[in-house]
Write a structure and sequence with these properties.
The chain is mostly helical. The chain contains 8 helices and no strands. The chain has one domain. The longest helix has about 30 residues, at about 135-165.
């Protein structure tokens, strides 16, 4: 994972990198949790409120990525360090699309199972879905844009930047994978304990694929597929069945 010589270790990491990791470990989890609490405090959301949520999330994610990429390149991280490579493209696209299809199908049936469950714990999931998932086709279209944004931006932040920066901090690969996965899990604190654990495990799989192929392309496709399916299946099984 080290393809350029950079003069820092995890003990002397640049101050702006430390701020970025603070953002990933504290600010983003807190912001997601606080936003969800505000949504749960109201009985429902209007189409306009959901659309503003989608657009504001897309804008904020791209702004964060732009700033993080700027600082990463400023400190000498390369496209290779950040796993922004597309070679061999046919192989990456093939495994990306096949994996996205498999993961998407599995996620669809899981959400169908959750939607039909009578477990009281599912009510919280449905309450969240009722407030954030799209209702109309136009909302669904914008939501798909958000899903693609999340796939690209979150993978860059957690599998691209975080793993690239940590790998240059003289940390062993297993700890780089673990730390980036924990950060990814914390980003989904708003989903509760199950969501944190689930995304931590998912992040570990994604991180392993990133290391194996030294590219984000596959995991971006997989991540986007999960979120896109959530929009379609969530509307059908978590909202219409509520």
């Amino acid at each position: 994972m080290r393809t350029s010589v950079i003069s820092w270790s995890y003990r002397t990491m640049p101050w702006d990198f430390l701020l970025i990791f603070f953002l990933l470990a504290v600010i983003i989890p807190w912001r997601g949790w606080a936003r969800l609490q505000r949504l749960l405090a109201v009985p429902s959301t209007t189409s306009g409120e959901r659309m503003r949520l989608y657009f504001s999330s897309m804008v904020s994610q791209w702004l964060i990525v732009i700033v993080v990429a700027w600082r990463a390149f400023a400190h000498g991280l390369t496209y290779s360090d950040l796993a922004l490579q597309g070679k061999p493209l046919p192989e990456l696209v093939f495994f990306g699309l096949v994996g996205a299809a498999a993961i998407g199908i599995a996620h669809w049936f899981n959400l169908r199972r959750v939607g039909r469950s009578k477990n009281p714990a599912v009510e919280r999931v449905k309450a969240i879905a009722w407030r954030i998932f799209p209702r109309s086709n136009w909302e669904l279209t914008v939501f798909c844009g958000l899903a693609i944004t999340a796939g690209a931006c979150e993978e860059f932040l957690y599998r691209g930047f975080a793993m690239g920066a940590l790998s240059h901090g003289s940390l062993p690969t297993w700890s780089v994978l673990l730390i980036s996965s924990v950060l990814f899990g914390l980003a989904h604190t708003y989903q509760g304990r199950g969501g944190v654990i689930g995304t931590l495990l998912l992040g570990t799989v994604f991180g392993f694929v990133r290391i194996l192929y030294h590219s984000l392309l596959i995991v971006v496709l997989w991540h986007a597929a999960i979120d896109i399916v959530a929009g379609f299946a969530g509307r059908r099984y978590l909202i219409e069945n509520k």
